[in-house]
Amino acid sequence: xxxxxxxxxxxxxxxxxxxxxxxxxxxxxxxxxxxxxxxxxxxxxxxxxxxxxxxxxxxxxxxxxxxxxxxxxxxxxxxxxxxxxxxxxxxxxxxxxxxxxxxxxxxxxxxxxxxxxxxxxxxxxxxxxxxxxxxxxxxxxxxxxxxxxxxxxxxxxxxxxxxxxxxxxxxxxxxxxxxxxxxxxxxxxxxxxxxxxxxxxxxxxxxxxxxxxxxxxxxxxxxxxxxxxxxxxxxxxxxxxxxxxxxxxxxxxxxxxxxxxxxxxxxxxxxxxxxxxxxxxxxxxxxxxxxxxxxxxxxxxxxxxxxxxxxxxxxxxxxxxxxxxxxxxxxxxxxxxxxxxxxxxxxxxxxxxxxxxxxxxxxxxxxxxxxxxxxxxxxxxxxxxxxxxxxxxxxxxxxxxxxxxxxxxxxxxxxxxxxxxxxxxxxxxxxxxxxxxxxxxxxxxxxxxxxxxxxxxxxxxxxxxxxxxxxxxxxxxxxxxxxxxxxxxxxxxxxxxxxxxxxxxxxxxxxxxxxxxxxxxxxxxxxxxxxxxxxxxxxxxxxxxxxxxxxxxxxxxxxxxxxxxxxxxxxxxxxxxxxxxxxxxxxxxxxxxxxxxxxxxxxxxxxxxxxxxxxxxxxxxxxxxxxxxxxxxxxxxxxxxxxxxxxxxxxxxxxxxxxxxxxxxxxxxxxxxxxxxxxxxxxxxxxxxxxxxxxxxxxxxxxxxxxxxxxxxxxxxxxxxxxxxxxxxxxxxxxxxxxxxxxx
Length: 744
Prior knowledge:
Largest sheet: 8 strands, mixed
Number of helices: 27
Structural class: alpha/beta
Oligomer: single chain
Strand content: 5-15%
Shape: elongated
Number of strands: 14
Helix content: 55-70%
């Protein structure tokens, strides 16, 4: 029975929160606006003093903003400190106005010691400043100090200007004995300008977004400041009266501030990090110009000593934020926003200095490239990609010594400079960095695995200048990517005519006709039986100088040189030749060949394939053409026509990178597809946990329902699968890996 009662209580509380936090609370804001307009109209009517209707409307418009703020606090579940503090500030101000108004109506003049009214009026300022402080620290964790300094200088400049404008008030303070309420009334404009200066400092930051209604808040405080200033002047001159349009100033200020507070309960928009820009100099520059103008004016006419003092203090204080800003600008210019690491500019500036003071001692420059980062971005989103880069930076930093320099060059590329380091130590560090990155990353509930490729250049053996070391390290990284497993750390080629260490287009043309292109075969294994049910042909280039190059090392070169058609022809001929050999040995082993989009759309590809298959006496089903989902979805109509032409000749089709192309099975349903290839290397292998299986299970089930096979890549390990190898080594590798030999 008690459980049911507690549940009902929670249900009622939940409904209360839902009712208040729903979109229907806009009526309160509209009511506030309507009553404000009605109040202003009553003040503009030709009458003297305050009418009963005007008094009632004033009371409503004084407390309605507080009610709007209270609703905003509830809507945010009391989780936004700035909303709570701003609501408390308006409530304190409303209380002070109400108490002051009641006392004024009773006596007909400003009360001498209405302590409660004074307390409410004074509390508005520290509470509102506290709200801004919390907002600044939450939105600008790295720039809060700069904003504080700007606000202080801006407030001093504004105070100096107000001291000139309010000179009659200041004179009355010095010559008469005002009561506490009058003193507070005279000081309120100065407090207002402090808040306005803080807002100006915050708003001047490039890319800053403090909410959907930020400018209403700024406008409300400006109106509030103007009303306080006029009130102080009239109070000093003895001309203040209740029921004039001046009363609308405070009411309007309250309403505009409340409208901003209500906006803080709305979902926040994603924004880029704020940066200090030239516009951020506006506040200290304007304050400095104001102080200088007042000092010049004081030499010509009589100006209060307070104004002169504040102007001089403004000029002195202005030097502090300007100098501080120069340090911040320098730091921003040399710091990567995302990771907090030094950026390329810092690298270009610091490493030459480190090399110049090394006195010839050996050091190493490492270039690191994050493998498969684009896949993570395309599959899981750029926010996950950013989180991955942040965690990668943290892991890399944890593997380095205090004197080592780690920088992010941009994208997924990092650089490390190791002082007093020989080649063996550099390789050891590279291995430790690779091991650290190889561990799974937890990215907002997504488990991701990736790796890094490392290129090393040694100082002074491979260069004495940063540009040379960067080029050598980049070439080493390029060679590491082209080699198996990314295990090469240095480029060793010495005979390149231009010293570039890169394969050239003429060399590729030669390779196409001289047998330098070979195929390695990746086995495809049936998980149910452990039997090899096919192989994927992967082209390699046995470069006479660079060694064995993977496809990524020369495919771009083939595309730029217009050699994709020739490259595809060589791969198809070689793969079908090997399939014919296996067929003659009694092994029916389907072969998968990757085809670039440009080759897929080749009009005579189906007829050429038909000729190649028939010439070798093979069943067309032995060939499975693998095309990327991106290539297919880029031009679905052309792809459908091309795939239909291939299927009509008995050739099967596989779609690769299905999970990275934002493609649904419904989009592929109308295409002649026999197989989907999923890349599971983004997650922990299924043999180590259930997350991958849970993630891909719906896709597999839908694919099977459409009579489409599913192949998973990226799950290779030494216990269950074999690496790509030449055909001559394939059977031995399968036996070593514990797989069933090729069926005879």
